Amino acid sequence: MNAPLNPTRLPDEASDVTAEIAPVAPAADEFREAPRKRRPKRDVDGWVLLDKPVGMTSTQAVGAVKWLFQAKKAGHAGTLDPLASGCLPIALGEATKTVPFVMDGRKVYRFTVRWGIETDTDDSEGQPTETSDLRPTREAILDLLPAYRGEIEQVPPDYSALKINGERAYDLARDGVEVNLAARTVVIHSLELVDQPDADHAVFEAECGKGTYVRSLARDFGRALGARGHISALRRTRVGTFPEEELIPLAKLREVSEAMDDAPPSYALRPVEIGLESLPALRVSSSDAARLAHGQPIILRGRDAPVLEGPVAITAGGRLIALGEAEAGEIHPKRIFHSGK
User: Fold this and answer.
1) C-alpha distances out from residue 219 to 71, 117, 157, 269, 335, Å
2) For residue 318, what pLDDT is reported?
3) Which pLDDT does position 37 carry in this prediction?
4) How far apart are CA 290 and CA 286, in angstroms?
5) Cβ–Cβ under 8 Å, residues 242 and 89
6) How is 61-83 classified by DSSP, letter by letter?
7) N or C: where does the chain have the smaller number of CB atoms within 10 Å of the terminal CB?
8) 53 by DSSP, 3-state: which?
9) How far is it, in rounded angstroms, from Cα 285 to Cα 283?
10) What residues are annotated to the active site?
11) How far apart are CA 96 and CA 71, in angstroms?
12) What is the value of pTM for the model shown?
């Protein structure tokens, strides 16, 4: 997800959907890492549904969780900028093989637009570029929203991690180079006005498909309404099938680990297969499982054989064993899972 950028600060590597600024920022020292002792790495497989705090990069969050679990391998499913909070699914071990399927899922964001000021970064970290004394009415906002639902054309922010001739757009913009990004087709599955706490602010909730920039929505709302605007707050509340209610704060993970003499907070580890909940599931016999594990395809036989096409999650004996591709009655293994052995 491409995140809002401070021109003086390098962001995390961007992924597919933009993230912005979270509502309440804790003290900067709260998440500063203390020197760590070396600990032996171990095989850990599963997902941690982290509620990323404000003030921490996604890379730092992954590092903190990886250290707490003493995991050999870790990654995340969609960048959140340091000034954003919320759902940052972190994959450990074999779960990293399922990350693309989580990243392709829909994301839900709750965000606040500050009217009256447009900035060069489209968030409150940037410098003002345009101002307006006009403040939109509730009726004007509601009349506007239908134009931004469904499939729309959207120009990404200049301060984004998209590449132009091999260089990141935010690097060019920061160096004063004019950035001209082409409009892209994105999908807004739902978009609602949630609140208007005062004349200067409006709170929205959007469910977005891959590649959507929330900062661009704020910018375009402001221009269309003649009020100008930028993102002043954002929280990601859902990624794919991972809801806000299941998120675990990093502070809680640390608290539990410290209470157990730095033992991994294993209670927070979710199964690898939750990263594949969007895929059809296929149960196979132990003999077919063995063929798949050796890279050999299997054939779906019999009158009751399922009719499948495309990616499938394959299990045997209650254990996830492979990601496969179904085509014309055959299942071809694409990724083999070794957890649980």
Assistant:
1) 41, 9, 9, 38, 41
2) 86
3) 64
4) 6
5) yes
6) HHHHHHHHHTBS-EEESS---TT
7) C
8) coil
9) 7
10) 81
11) 12
12) 0.81
Query: Which residue type occupies 144?
Result: L
Say if residues 36 and 66 touch (Cβ distance below 8 Å).
no
What is the C-alpha to C-alpha distance for residues 231 and 334, in angstroms, rounded to an integer?
Answer: 41
Report how far residue 140's alpha carbon sits from residue 41's, in angstroms, rounded to the nearest whole number: 56
> For the chain, how many residues are written?
341
Torsion of CA 299, 303, 306, 307, to 10 degrees: 90
Segment 121-166, tens digit of pLDDT:
898 888 999 999 999 999 999 999 999 999 999 998 887 777 777 7
For residue 192, give the amino acid letter. E
Token pair, residue 248, equals 């675990």
| DSSP secondary structure code for residue 138 in this structure | H
Beta bridge partners of 187: 151
Measured over all CA atoms, what is the biggest interatomic distance in the chain, rounded to whole angstroms?
Answer: 71
* Averaged pLDDT, 263-279: 92
Residue 10: name the closest of 159, 226, 191 by CA.
159
- Compute the distance between CA of residue 328 and CA of residue 313 in angstroms, rounded to an integer: 17
3-class state of residue 105 by DSSP: coil
pLDDT value at residue 5: 35
Cross-strand bridge partners of residue 242 = 239
